[in-house]
Amino acid sequence: MKTTSDAQTEPAEPRSVQRMVRRQAFEKWIGEHPYEQDTSRWPQDDKYAWPGQYKVYQVQLAWDAWCESANSMLNRTGGFTDKGKHE
């Protein structure tokens, strides 16, 4: 299972801890059996069309769905949401 490198970690900003924990949980889940997907991402560099996105399109779709699901649950319970900020 590939994981993101230190150079590709989330930027230090408010709420970044919640996003990092969410991303770590997602990468652990999708990287293990039975899915065993590659979680490498494009570098955070403007020369790439999709900086910071997962290289495997299906993994990116799963990540987007994971974030929307978490946001939906938080909205129903009145908790924190960072909709649109799941990089």
3D structure, described in words:
The chain has 87 residues and is an all-alpha fold. It has a domain of 30 residues. It has 2 helices and no strands. Helix 1 packs across helix 2. The longest helix has 21 residues. The N terminus is likely disordered.
Query: Are there runs of 5+ residues with pLDDT below 50, and where?
Result: 2-12
Number of helices: 2
Apparent shape: globular
Helix content: 40-55%
SSE arrangement, N to C: HH
Instruction: Evaluate the radius of gyration.
Output: 13 Å
End-to-end Cα distance, whole Å, is 20 Å
Task: Report strand %.
Answer: under 5%
Compute the average pLDDT: 80
User: From the helix content, strand content and strand pairing, which structural class follows?
Assistant: mainly alpha
Overall number of strands: 0
Largest sheet: none
SSE map:
Layout: H1 16-31, H2 57-77
Helix pairs in contact: 1-2
Q: Would you kindly provide a brief summary of this structure?
A:
This protein is mainly alpha-helical and 87 residues long. The protein has 2 helices and no strands.
Give me some keywords for this one.
87 residues; mainly alpha; disordered N terminus
